Amino acid sequence: MKHRIWLVLGLITLGLLAGCASSGPERDINDPTNSLVFGYVDMDDAPTGVASAWITQVAPPSDTPYWGLGVSKGLFYNSYLPPGSYQLSKLGGSGFFAGQHEYAFPKQGNKTSLRITKPGIYFLGSYKYKKVKSGMFSQAKFAIEKINKPTEAELLKRILDESDNIKDSAWGNKIRARLAQLKS
Amino acid sequence: MIPRRLTFTRVRLAASLLLLGALSACVGAAREPVDSLSGLNDDETLVVGRIEIVPPLRKDEQKLKGLGTGNFENKVFLLTDDHYRVLTEEPVMADYAGRIEAILGKNFFVRSNSKPYFILGGMMYLDLGGREMNRAYFPGGLKASLKPGDKAVYVGAVQYHRNEFFEITKATIVDDYDRTNAEFKKKFGTKIPLRKALLTPVK
User: Fold this and answer.
1) What residues make up the domain containing B114?
2) B87 — contact with chain A (CB < 8 Å)?
3) Is B16 near chain A, with CB under 8 Å?
4) Domain assignment of residue A109, given as a range
5) In terms of CA atoms, which chain B residue is nearest residue A108?
6) CA–CA distance from B23 to each of A148, B1, B68, B70, B72 (Å)?
7) pLDDT score for A116
8) Considering the entire predicted model, what is its pTM?
9) Is the ipTM here above 0.85?
10) Model confidence over B101-154: pLDDT tens digits?
């Protein structure tokens, strides 16, 4: 019985870690070709919150196109993306009553499409989940609506506050410089 | 371009299978491929054309997994209607009746009545099977000018240019009559000519 409790606690910890840290292909956080990509989604009206998020590299073609994003209370980010073209592709979450949910973004018409030609800080935007009516036997459908809050600056501050890993890396100064730029 | 109001979907396996089954069986019939001109009725025309994507699909860019999904490999569903209309929402099952099922880069030879018709748009599966369903849509607004008495008509090759996000940036009608006519003659003989009547944008 005791072992089972540890197993459950272990799985919960693993889940939390998966929710807080990026996963997928990894690179040195201080690689000068890295870009920091981040955004926010308000899932208050969704069946679940977000525990995992993935961004897909659509160009150049790759055998490992899925990059995990760190997730924290709606904020999602990755600090080591190489130059290329990307789209937010999937969010995942679960709830006690709602069960496991996966929110998939279409490739075509994806509002979060991003081309990174030079390393830098890229804000995908803040969005709000919105349910869209669909028939009983058709796919459950959702939309994401762009919202003004939280702002780019608010989210960058959160990244600095919540991730020592980023704060203590080359990103610390770059983010502070971007914040100063946004203030002026 | 068909508007994509819905950008955020929760994929349900059951729903995917329903749609897959529907396209395979329940939806109104597609325009039938023709192997012999003798099978055409007096009021019917053989329509010949081709759909291309520029740049073409890369290997593994279309991910089809699971039973029956192989039928959709490199296939574009061209939605047609005798009356011109603009699709303002994602197509519903009824919109797929009378569709042309075109394999990318290959000429299609399909049976049609001998009246003009319109291409309203197109759809292809990018991901299908498991818990995935991702579709790409193509713009329409094209007219096929068939005339009573036409036995075989070449409508051209529609080239859809796209970027890495699968946004269609340009659509052009390419006249590849000589090559297509050679294939037509090889397949159906030289008795009936292939009339050229390229698709035209609807004004």
Assistant:
1) 13-201
2) no
3) yes
4) 2-183
5) B166
6) 41, 21, 11, 13, 10
7) 98
8) 0.83
9) no
10) 999 999 999 999 999 999 999 999 999 887 778 899 999 999 999 999 999 999
